[in-house]
Write a structure and sequence with these properties.
single chain, alpha+beta, Elongation Factor Tu (Ef-tu), domain 3, six-stranded antiparallel beta barrel, binds cobalt (II) ion, binds zinc ion
Length: 367
């Protein structure tokens, strides 16, 4: 790994291994504040828990939001039985397939971390047709090593406690990483790096670390309302399907080919249709500086950009995404080169975009 890879890896490791399901982002929030505090003019936390850090530009003009979400998909304990087993429900878009046989970390009300495993019948006893089926969430159970309800209580676990995958971040090969919550701690890593490396710029930058993206883009909506920005860029992951068994026409993006600049997402465009001027400007800047990029046309999923886009009188928005495999699993994979290039692209954009140009995106009086 080169120096910039090493630096990114350690920042990513810190962020990804933090515990932060939707609505319980406090550990991630602490890291974000700690990282940004010395590089911005002001920083505050709003009533939902979003972190809003402001770095003023030279011209006190247009407001640009960068948004990345702090939450990760997780679980909530819904039931504890007499034998000491737990039942959990998903918080965010979790597929049962990615949950079976995983280790999870539950945080109790008094702040302890209790480990559990998502159990299932072993193959030795499962009937062939049963083994082929993916059980539903209500059939899954969590084993925390307790043999009675009393033992569960002693460990401090109660109905309503949240959990996330229990997985560390590891290097895969020489420049790829694997772990949980790369969605969207990598967006935070890009945002933090950009703020730290930023040189002269005209626009006022609002770096926003949002809450509850995975459960309906909630934090971004209220943060954007309060800031009332002239434009916004969401930093998030996107689908990379460059794996065996998938046709090239379905890849969406590929690892290592550069950050993706989004055109459209959501089912049939119901997510975001990126502002074409922002989209074109990002491409112009990438080409000017020789930064590799991919154009992203995503068949599903969306990001904070679509909530910000529809705030108040409307906010022109685009997303810069990091191609990521196996989204919403405990073994997400991305390429550090794409992260380095995303930082370059977003940094250059902020440094080079004229305040007046950004403000002009808000509309005009027709002659
Ligand atoms: Co996600
Ligand atoms: Zn995300």
């Amino acid at each position: 790994m080169c120096a910039s890879h090493e630096e990114l890896f350690s920042l990513l490791k810190r962020l990804c291994e933090a515990w932060g399901p939707p609505g319980r982002e406090d550990s991630v929030r602490e890291i974000v504040i700690d990282e940004l505090r010395n590089y911005v003019d002001e920083i505050h936390v709003d009533s939902l828990g979003n972190v809003i850090a402001v770095k003023r530009g030279g011209r006190g003009g247009a407001k640009l939001v960068l948004a990345a979400h702090m939450d990760e998909v997780g679980f909530v304990v819904s039931h504890i039985d007499d034998k000491g087993f737990l039942r959990v429900l998903p918080v965010g878009g979790l597929h049962e397939r990615n949950v079976i046989s995983q280790r999870i970390a539950i945080r109790t009300r008094d702040g302890r971390i209790v480990r559990g495993v998502v159990g299932a019948k072993p193959p030795h006893v499962a009937k062939p047709e049963e083994a082929r089926q993916v059980p539903e969430f209500r059939e899954l159970f969590v084993d925390i090593g307790a043999s009675s309800r009393e033992e569960v209580e002693k460990l401090g676990v109660r109905v309503g406690d949240f959990a996330v995958f229990d997985r560390d971040l590891q290097l895969l090969g020489t420049k790829r990483v694997t772990g949980k919550a790369l969605d969207d701690r990598v967006g935070l890593a890009v945002m933090i790096s950009v703020v730290k490396e930023l040189e002269k710029h005209e626009v006022d930058l609002y770096a926003v670390a949002t809450v509850q993206e995975e459960v309906g883009l909630k934090g971004a909506r209220v943060a954007a309302y309060a800031i009332d920005p002239d434009a916004a860029i969401a930093l998030d992951v996107t689908i990379a399907l460059d794996v065996p068994g998938v046709g090239e026409h379905e890849y969406v993006t590929r690892l290592g080919r550069g950050p993706a600049i989004k055109v459209i997402d959501g089912r049939m465009g119901t997510g975001l249709i990126a502002n074409p001027k922002l989209f074109n400007k990002l491409i112009e800047i990438a080409e000017k500086h020789g930064i590799p990029y991919q154009v992203e046309v995503a068949p599903g999923g969306t990001t904070d950009a679509s909530a910000i886009n529809l705030t108040k009188r409307g906010v022109p928005a685009v997303t810069v995404s990091i191609p990521t495999r196996y989204l919403h699993s405990s073994v997400e994979v991305l390429d550090l080169d794409d992260v380095v290039n995303a930082v370059k692209l977003v940094k250059r954009f902020i440094e080079e975009v004229p305040s007046e140009w950004l403000a002009s995106l808000r509309g005009y009086r027709a002659k």
